[in-house]
């Protein structure tokens, strides 16, 4: 997979290193000569250019990229890169870094963004996840379909503890994608039973989050301990 990363700072280089280890082809783009540090990510391609300029993106052959990541420290730049990548070059997947949480509402499909990653939101979500059992935590927002990646740790008092996945009447527009049980990562099947302490990851419409939290967290009336 070919991935172009706009922004060769610490964030961009870190992403590049991870993706290179997974066998992907990486191009790092930055307009600041001081950011071009080939020795730090020697296996990547490097381009000294302004990623907000069409001529630069033509040189980068963005139309050959499967993914573009807008990872600069400037939200305006990340929005422009995302929009150009999607509308001018038809890049299938555009991921954008949100630096200022106040700007998060802009990072949607209107600006070509498929996935918006807000570092402050992610850090706060991880803190909440570490201390909360039974509370739904939003980890990541997907712009298409107004869906989010959400997490909930199943509390002992949940009515669904011991219930098979296929027997649960899940809310519409929600999908259980992963069960993390101790050190194991499980792809859920209909026969798998939910256990107290399971960390459940869902892709869910935002409008269904409250319903999902109620379903997983509250013991139904008439149920005894």
N-to-C order of helices and strands:
EHEEHEHEEHEEEEEH
- What's the CATH superfamily of the largest domain, by name? NAD(P)-binding Rossmann-like Domain
Q: Given the C-alpha coordinates, what overall shape results?
A: elongated
Q: What is the radius of gyration computed over CA atoms, rounded to a whole number of angstroms?
A: 20 Å
Strand proportion, as a percent range, falls in 25-35%
Helix residue percentage? 10-25%
Query: What is the total tally of β strands?
Result: 11
Pfam families: TrkA_C (PF02080), TrkA_N (PF02254)
Domain RCK N-terminal: 1-117
GO molecular function, one term: potassium ion transmembrane transporter activity
InterPro entries: K_uptake_TrkA (IPR006036), NAD(P)-bd_dom_sf (IPR036291), RCK_C (IPR006037), RCK_C_sf (IPR036721), RCK_N (IPR003148), Trk_Ktr_HKT_K-transport (IPR050721)
